[in-house]
Amino acid sequence: MKTIVLVSMSGGKDSTASYIEAKARYGSRYKIIPYFCDTGWEHELTYEYINYLESKIGCIVRLKSDKYDGFEDMCIKKKMIPNRLKRFCTEELKVFPSIKFISQWKAKGYRVINVVGVRKDESKKREPENMWKTTFLGKLPSNKSSKKAKSKFFNRDNTVTTFQPVVYWNALDVFTAIQKAGFKNNPLYSMGFSRVGCFPCIQANTNEIGMLDQKTVDRVTELEKTVSAKSGRYTVFLHKGGKLVSLGNKHRSNKYNGLGLELGCINQFGICE
Ligand code: SF4
User: Fold this and answer.
1) What does the domain layout of the chain look like in residue ranges?
2) CB distance 217 to 238 below 8 Å
3) Checking CA distances to 5, which of 66, 78, 226, 249 falls within 20 to 30 Å?
4) Which of 201, 205, 247, 267 most suits a substitution to test ligand 1, by most atoms within 8 Å of the C-beta?
């Protein structure tokens, strides 16, 4: 069986380091294809960084949702902005497009090794992660799902091998590996951001919100207005202690705390940094 190595790239340091590791390990044996889930809601510097990486490593496949033309379109069509409890953004804009991409390679008869840049020390939820794991593709069936749906999901054919080469590394290891390989980092890090990805992320914390530029705040405020008008409900980007806080309203105040949530999406592909 032919093997293909797919590398999930976010524009963040962990996925760049994971690509470098995957290339070193598999580059001489297998074809390696990096891919990037484009939410349409990334920082312009992240888009530039993806272009920069592409100039170094070759084509990075851009994946998009089949259903939505990016984050804003998704919010408008669903008449809501995702939040911690209803975090459909990860699923719709990243997980589903990734699953489709992986499944297409599997359908062509390839054994897929999917490389993701997850690290244990990123958060408590990621502590149990290992370098290798088998990942089921798709949405975990609920208790109420039919027997048929469950057996279709928990099936060997519905799995992909996940390789997480930097899982035991710390952030310094990652930056060092990137520097040694002669790659630049996403400039957002040197501007003080601890993570990259959707900009802003619905789980952004106080510091990150305080660092947003006015253009981004205006964009978010516009989205809040549009979704509020569509849904007929007051809809905002941030939630604080169960209350809704409009980002356009004194967004730089420290009292607006994004619930102190752990940063980033935790999902089966560790896809949001
Ligand atoms: S980075 Fe944040 S906003 Fe983007 S998909 Fe993940 S949870 Fe949603």
Assistant:
1) 2-180, 200-265
2) no
3) 66
4) 201
Which ligand 1 atom minimizes the distance to the CA of 93?
Answer: 5
CATH for 2-180 is 3.40.50.620
- Is 265 touching ligand 1 by the criterion CB < 6 Å? yes
pLDDT in tens, 205-257: 777 888 888 899 899 999 999 999 999 998 888 766 555 566 655 443 333 33
The residue to mutate among 14, 41, 89, having the most atoms of ligand 1 within 8 angstroms of its beta carbon, is 89
Which residues, 6+ apart, have CB-to-CB distance to 68 below 8 Å? 74, 77, 92, 93
Atom 4 in ligand 1: residue holding the nearest Cα: 198
More confident residue, 61 or 157: 61
- State in Å: Cα 208 to ligand 1 middle: 14
Which phi and psi (to 5°) does residue 170 adopt?
A: -100, 180
CA distance 15 to 203: 20
Q: What atom in ligand 1 is closest to the CA of residue 202?
A: 3
Q: Residue 112 pairs with which residues in a beta bridge? A: 4
Query: Model pTM?
Result: 0.88
pLDDT digits (tens, 9 = 90+) for 25-69: 999 999 999 999 999 999 999 999 999 999 999 999 999 999 999
Please state the φ and ψ torsions of residue 16, each to the nearest 5 degrees.
Answer: -65, -45
**Residue 220 CB–ligand 1 contact under 6 Å:** no
